[in-house]
Design goal:
10 strands, six-stranded mixed beta sheet, Rossmann fold, globular, four-stranded antiparallel beta sheet, alpha/beta
């Protein structure tokens, strides 16, 4: 599938999303959309709100206000049964893999099919081995997660995430902790999955090389706000200092505030030390 700016249906829509942890506001009027068949990368510095936003997209926590729509369904209005049905149309590859250590790789991948379909064991076995072929893990189905390398665990997690042919795939730091060669192979796999299956993919990552390789568009978060939402080329060319600091790994030196420093020494925690809550 070629990258295109042609307007197509949205697989994911976030509208005016606001989130609080107690008195702290984490997300501020966040809005974005992911087109059908698009790879959207969400990136930002530590504490920017990436994980909180992903939790909302996965339906793991309700926002203070705003709307999250997945495949044209408003998560805030779904019944538990409707939410469960929607989850069968999406896939999630967690950062750590989140594989069950007591189960073989084949059983890990087959689990969604066993839980959510009435397929017979023979068909489930065929579909499981097919997905192992897709992620280049054919022949490893009887091994346990502890017997796999970090890159193989990431591949197995992707196989489980796509075993039910989802329309939307969410990936949390898919190349984190991997050496550059293995990380590049994971990027290639994500691109192949999008092209072969036509799914929309949302990737949360801090890996710039991966971002520039796989993204159709990039959403840059900064202190819980959407700083930029544009193509790779536009993000690279941005003149915004905060974006260039992020791309060039430069820290932002804040001017010291003597009054704030004194309040911290006196134990006044009413204001976060740097004004940026950790997410």
């Amino acid at each position: 599938m070629s990258r295109s700016s042609q307007s197509v249906a949205h697989s994911v829509e976030v509208i005016d999303l606001n989130t609080h942890y107690g008195d702290r506001q984490i997300l501020h009027n966040v809005s974005l959309e992911v087109k059908q068949g698009e790879i959207m990368v969400i990136m930002g510095g530590s504490g920017s709100g990436k994980t909180t936003l992903l939790n909302h997209l996965l339906g793991l926590m309700p926002p203070t206000s705003g709307t999250v729509r997945i495949l044209d369904q408003d998560l805030g209005r779904l019944t538990p049964l409707e939410r469960q049905k929607l989850r069968t149309r999406t896939g999630v590859a967690f950062q750590s893999g989140a594989l069950f250590s007591s189960m073989s790789i084949g059983d890990n991948i087959a689990l969604p099919l066993r839980e959510h379909t009435d397929l017979d064991p023979t068909t489930i076995g065929i579909m499981t081995r097919l997905k192992l072929e897709v992620v280049s893990l054919a022949g490893f189905e009887n091994l346990k997660p502890a017997e796999l390398s970090g890159g193989m665990i990431k591949r197995a997690a992707l196989a489980r995430a796509i075993v039910m042919d989802p329309e939307v795939l969410f990936c949390d730091e898919p190349s984190a902790g991997l050496d550059p060669v293995v990380a590049s192979s994971i990027d290639d796999l994500i691109l192949r999955l999008r092209d072969a299956m036509g799914m929309s993919i949302v990737v949360v990552t801090h890996d710039l090389d991966s971002t520039f390789k796989i993204a159709d568009r990039i959403c840059v978060l900064d202190k819980g706000k959407v700083l930029a939402l544009d193509t790779v080329e536009a993000i690279r060319a941005s003149t915004d200092t905060r974006i260039q600091n992020l791309l060039n790994r430069r820290t932002e030196e804040a001017e010291p505030d003597p009054d704030a420093y004194l309040r911290r020494l006196l134990g006044d925690t009413s204001t976060p030390p740097d004004g940026t809550p950790r997410t």
